[in-house]
């Protein structure tokens, strides 16, 4: 879905920017130009960033402690 109509930025593009290294809303804004025109998309863009960063943290925490298997 489009988050920023002025710049034509979708939620998928925001997620991809985070997966490629953006670590904050500010990074996403500087990279994609979100909320740089009218600013009406700022709340939704921040929400997408927050949710995506939380998902990344959860997935990293899950892989930080790999299951250990013992031979039977």
TrEMBL record:
Cofactor(s) recorded in Swiss-Prot or TrEMBL: [2Fe-2S] cluster
Residues forming coiled coils: none
Every BFD-like [2Fe-2S]-binding domain range: 2-49
GO terms, molecular function: 2 iron, 2 sulfur cluster binding; metal ion binding
Sorted UniProt keywords: 2Fe-2S, Electron transport, Iron, Iron-sulfur, Metal-binding, Transport
InterPro entries listed in its UniProt record: BFD-associated_ferredoxin, BFD-like_2Fe2S-bd_dom, BFD-like_2Fe2S-bd_dom_sf
Keyword Metal-binding tagged: yes
Keyword Protein biosynthesis set for record: no
Family according to the record: Belongs to the Bfd family.
Protein name (Swiss-Prot/TrEMBL): Bacterioferritin-associated ferredoxin
Organism field: Pseudomonas guineae
Origin organism lineage: Bacteria, Pseudomonadati, Pseudomonadota, Gammaproteobacteria, Pseudomonadales
């Amino acid at each position: 879905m489009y988050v920023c109509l002025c710049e034509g930025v979708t939620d998928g593009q925001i997620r991809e920017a985070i997966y490629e290294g953006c670590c904050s809303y500010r990074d996403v804004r500087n990279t994609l130009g979100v909320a740089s025109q009218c600013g009406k998309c700022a709340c939704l863009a921040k929400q997408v960033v927050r949710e995506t960063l939380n998902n990344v943290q959860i997935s990293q925490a899950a892989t930080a402690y790999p299951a250990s298997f013992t031979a039977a």
